[in-house]
Hints:
The complex is a heterodimer of chains A (257) and B (303).
Chain A: E1 4-15, E2 20-27, E3 39-42, E4 54-62, E5 67-73, H1 77-83, E6 90-97, E7 110-115, H2 119-128, E8 136-142, E9 159-164, E10 171-172, H3 179-182, E11 190-194, H4 197-209, E12 213-217, E13 233-236, E14 239-242, E15 249-251
Parallel strand pairs in A: 7-8, 7-11, 8-9, 9-10, 11-12
Antiparallel strand pairs in A: 1-2, 1-6, 2-5, 3-4, 3-6, 4-5, 12-15, 13-14
Chain B: E1 6-8, E2 11-13, E3 17-19, E4 41-47, E5 60-63, E6 66-69, H1 77-89, E7 95-100, H2 105-116, E8 123-127, H3 144-157, E9 161-165, H4 173-182, E10 187-190, E11 194-197, E12 199-200, E13 205-206, E14 212-216, H5 221-232, E15 239-241, H6 248-257, E16 259-264, H7 267-270, H8 274-288
Parallel strand pairs in B: 3-4, 3-16, 4-7, 7-8, 8-9, 9-10, 10-15, 15-16
Antiparallel strand pairs in B: 1-2, 5-6, 6-14, 11-14, 12-13
Helix pairs in contact in B: 2-3, 3-4, 4-5, 5-6, 6-8
Amino acid sequence: xxxxxxxxxxxxxxxxxxxxxxxxxxxxxxxxxxxxxxxxxxxxxxxxxxxxxxxxxxxxxxxxxxxxxxxxxxxxxxxxxxxxxxxxxxxxxxxxxxxxxxxxxxxxxxxxxxxxxxxxxxxxxxxxxxxxxxxxxxxxxxxxxxxxxxxxxxxxxxxxxxxxxxxxxxxxxxxxxxxxxxxxxxxxxxxxxxxxxxxxxxxxxxxxxxxxxxxxxxxxxxxxxxxxxxxxxxxxxxxxxxxxxxxxxxxxxxxxx
Amino acid sequence: xxxxxxxxxxxxxxxxxxxxxxxxxxxxxxxxxxxxxxxxxxxxxxxxxxxxxxxxxxxxxxxxxxxxxxxxxxxxxxxxxxxxxxxxxxxxxxxxxxxxxxxxxxxxxxxxxxxxxxxxxxxxxxxxxxxxxxxxxxxxxxxxxxxxxxxxxxxxxxxxxxxxxxxxxxxxxxxxxxxxxxxxxxxxxxxxxxxxxxxxxxxxxxxxxxxxxxxxxxxxxxxxxxxxxxxxxxxxxxxxxxxxxxxxxxxxxxxxxxxxxxxxxxxxxxxxxxxxxxxxxxxxxxxxxxxxxxxxxxxxxxx
Lengths: 257, 303
């Protein structure tokens, strides 16, 4: 799949919760196929402190209107600057980057677990994977109810479960404390996750122990995003692999977790 | 029509813009963004005799107007290069130069012998300046004696264009340049990265796994420009300039200071289409200043 560096028009910049935004970017050219787990590397202009592009996972793609939606959580200087962008501004981005999650087979029952901005590819996967909603469970964890984003647009694609550390929404605790995870993991044939590393490690280890297929999406710091700089490597069972081009999605069995 | 062609010893470049080692892999990594045959040359990823896993993650830290890296010459070794990569890149219509590294002089010799056999590799860039490896690398490039020793040894076995990549982490880069020229280097390229460091004040820990790393990007451009000018005035062999070049005007500044050609490095991470913009920008500059040949620009600094 050919990667391109495109200028997008920012159509919408909507705040979703206290530190997350949804950016709607429109390309003047048709958008090539993008799959859940792939990412886009965005140039942050007019900032002396931000030199490199910033990678973001893709929340949604609309091939009719040539738009891509990003979920941007403020984590540092680059993401903060991007969320300050105004509508009608041009934003340069390189896409599609990386390898996507393995799409489930018709017979699969899948559990998607997202944390932080890692919710984005989980929602995208739920939407396009083609399974009936009863075969898709989406478990989303956050610190508090105000850290969750509204996922009602996606509710028809699967069953949704929530956790918060303070108990303000869904079950109290981490995603790995939720009953879907603690009691019903055996009901699923594939587990997909994207979020903080400790969360993904806990999920990955549980899936490995039960011999359930599990893919995780890593977000190691990268400079280029297209496999040239070799900065974002993960130490896998086959040696150093680039998260940007060999991943970001890895089968948990291939990692040294 | 302006003439962008340039000669580095026996190496004919269609224009003076090359991509720097370690910033474009083996070319294919940026092939979606630019037509590789429009480049003056591609300096491929640093290659060693044996495979290297490189340094542990984290290997990168963003800095004001630049970045630190500590990749540590991760590569699959020269056998893999010859068997799997060379066949795929040898017919690209540009000059392919291999960046050659070693831990000991014998490594450099054996590597140079292997690379000398490859018809479509007309030159090597001998890297005596990598700051991110424990043994060899920069250690060879920071004293005239060790730089002389490695260049002398490689010169005996390598019969094509020998470019030596110099470290800026020295008291006098001109002295090192003169030393390698005396041992038969056909050209020098500079600068490799400046040794630097990043600290996380919250955790009180270094950002890089190796504590120190190599600084690149526009942050180092004034240092690189100064060193290119000093070396141009110290040696007769051609100088290839690099260090933070992001635009055609940056590239022209290096050429005016004495560079016969330039390498584009860290800029590729920010915008892999930059080499095309730079080549076009140099043409436009030449038309605007009524310059027929790019050779007229080299060392044209008026002091």
